[in-house]
Amino acid sequence: MPASRNPKSLLQVARLYYLENLSQQAVAERVGISRSNVSRMLSEAQRQGIVEIRINDPAGRERELERQLEERFGLREARVAQRPLAATATASNQVGVLASQVLLDSIKEQMTVALSWGHALQSMVWSTTTDRDHAAHLVQLVGGLSSISNEISGQELVRELASRLGASYRYLHAPAVFASAEGREALLAEQSIAQALDAARTADIAFVGIGTPTHGSSAAILSGLDLSKAQTKQFWSQQPVGDIAARYFDAQGQAVTGPTADRVLAVTLEDLAAIPTVVGVAEGRAKVPGVVGALHGRLIDVLVCDETLARGVLSSTSSPPFEAEGARP
């Protein structure tokens, strides 16, 4: 007699085998079918989605999603946090832990590490612990913004991470946004500001949050710019999907121009491309458009994210036209 494909029968066999821990032979005797039919029914239960088998990596990572992201987007590395199992765990915390591991795996003596801002980087900083001091130097990629909470600003994150690493740090004593392009240019003429930005441009590694224009600090930048109706229309006409260090970009990772570029004090996307390793850290499905744009524009080398975001990225886009080696220029 062929194995049953009836969902009710498949569920019965699956419960006995997976939940009551009976052997396939014991299930066969209980139900009154052959052992080979039990094996076929268990496979059919998986095919119909009645049974889902999940392997929980002790490191809390989704290795298959990491492989898919690396292959599709030419990433140097991807680390994807599994969905939290414990009631007290959050995706943000788990992403922070993985990002912190990337930092500690990468950091070397006399290295310059640059940071942007945001909740994802805050989680990374708070997850960072080490048993020795590091002779590294931390710098900011973007000025401060008073309309975001202080604990996720670039200055606070640089100071806190330096304290945890036993490293030195340098503030970028400047706002992120200005009322006019002339105001920004005047401050850029200050030697201390120019030197702080030069230090960021020559960083060995950068850790950046990836924003979307309608959420969080990315939206706060727009609010701080106080754009006119015409400027706002110009901005949205370029179809921005995300930002890194207050620099907006479209779905192909191309820089958005206009007041949102001319009145922001930060490294440019071109400056970012010159940094040897850029690690993007993001969490949550709302970040899918921004992450996809960053990947298409090859703005990051390494992606650290949660499972929900990774699946959203993989399901929302096809492969970009990378060169064979798959590396950033």
Description of the structure:
The chain is α/β, with parallel strands linked by helices and 329 residues long. The chain has two domains: 7-47, Arc Repressor Mutant, subunit A (Orthogonal Bundle); 63-316, Rossmann fold (3-Layer(aba) Sandwich). Helices cover 45% and strands 12% of the residues. The protein has 15 helices and nine strands. It has helices at 7-19, 24-31, 35-47, 63-73, 91-106, 119-127, 154-165, 181-188, 191-201, 216-225, 229-237, 259-262, 269-274, 288-296, 307-316; strands at residues 77-81, 112-115, 137-140, 168-169, 205-209, 240-244, 247-250, 277-281, 302-306. The strands form two sheets. A seven-stranded parallel sheet has the order 1-9-8-5-2-3-4, with helices on both faces. The longest helix has 16 residues, at 91-106. It is elongated, with a radius of gyration of 24 Å. Mean pLDDT is 89; it is low at 321-327.
Summarize the SSE layout with pairings.
Layout: H1 7-19, H2 24-31, H3 35-47, H4 63-73, E1 77-81, H5 91-106, E2 112-115, H6 119-127, E3 137-140, H7 154-165, E4 168-169, H8 181-188, H9 191-201, E5 205-209, H10 216-225, H11 229-237, E6 240-244, E7 247-250, H12 259-262, H13 269-274, E8 277-281, H14 288-296, E9 302-306, H15 307-316
Parallel strand pairs: 1-9, 2-3, 2-5, 3-4, 5-8, 8-9
Antiparallel strand pairs: 6-7
Helix pairs in contact: 1-3, 2-3, 4-15, 5-6, 6-7, 14-15
